[in-house]
């Protein structure tokens, strides 16, 4: 399977912090010298990446389908050679359903982590299908989480949204397996990140998470290899134990459906 080094232009969402930022900077250093577009909400962080030589674009996933369509259209107009997207943007909130729930935060989390990711992919796929028809490979790479396989009860919305994205990614891969669009999935374990700042749990997790530089090295190797599943640590253990054999069963179900 082709790897990310075949890409000429890569869009990374959620690129202003954590895994997204580290991957964007690492991709820009590949010997193949791809054009890397760092997308995110925080303009000051984007300007830092611009000074590091990356293209930048302000892109907020917590919005409606019409606004996402406008953003994707602008990206494709400016970067018609776009042939890869890493969908990394995400938020994580703690919810205790024995207490009052902030519904706005719950809905926002689902939108950022799942609904808007799938919507963005839907708007990008026709462009990638045109590349496929011209025998050019492209890549769709959602970032899910180990908690999408084994949920953490204190972050039920986050776990559920990542489980939904994990399931969707598997279906998308099988739908596109007769094209030149390669659907990879990054499944991180607990990694050093600002993701936990919103809940004030960062300090408690510092002795548990994988250092970002180590995680980035492992993930970049998987991207270069073109691995279908790019994971490590506890997330890889969970994937191998609970999900590894599912894709064959899903393919059988799909084959049965095609005979209906």
TrEMBL record:
NADP listed as a keyword: yes
GO MF: oxidoreductase activity
Parts of the chain that traverse the membrane: none
One Pfam family in the UniProt entry: adh_short
InterPro entries, A to Z: NAD(P)-bd_dom_sf, Sc_DH/Rdtase_CS, SDR_fam
Top-level taxon: Eukaryota
Matching Gene3D superfamilies: NAD(P)-binding Rossmann-like Domain
Family of the protein in this entry: Belongs to the short-chain dehydrogenases/reductases (SDR) family.
Protein name listed in UniProt: NAD(P)-binding protein
Species for this entry: Macrolepiota fuliginosa MF-IS2
